[in-house]
Design brief:
The chain is mostly helical. It folds into two domains: 52 residues; 39 residues. It is built from two helices and no strands. The model has no long low-confidence stretch (mean pLDDT 90).
């Protein structure tokens, strides 16, 4: 009887230990993946920080370019208005 209890006790203990080891290995794998994901996230955040510099130095250049573009677009608008006027006059004469 004692022999049977000893075998049953050792079997149950072995099952509990194996289950515990399986859960701990799962936790270790999860933590390992989390560490790698956090390292990738940190690398991405560093890249974002390095690639987003303040635009204060570039705003004057952008405004100058947009002003030049505006004057050219206004000239084109005037030319298009003249074309529409000529086309309207031709249509009215017919």
């Amino acid at each position: 009887m004692t022999q049977l209890l000893l075998v049953l006790t050792l079997t149950v203990t072995l099952i509990v230990v194996v289950a515990l080891v399986a859960y701990l290995v799962g936790i270790i794998i999860g933590l390992w993946k989390a560490k790698n994901d956090l390292a990738s996230l940190a690398g991405g955040l560093i890249a974002v920080r390095d690639n987003t510099q303040p635009l204060a130095d570039h705003i004057q250049n952008i405004n100058g370019g947009l002003s030049a573009l505006l004057s050219e677009l206004l000239k084109v608008n005037g030319n298009l208005a003249a074309i529409v006027g000529v086309a309207t006059d031709l249509k009215n004469k017919q």
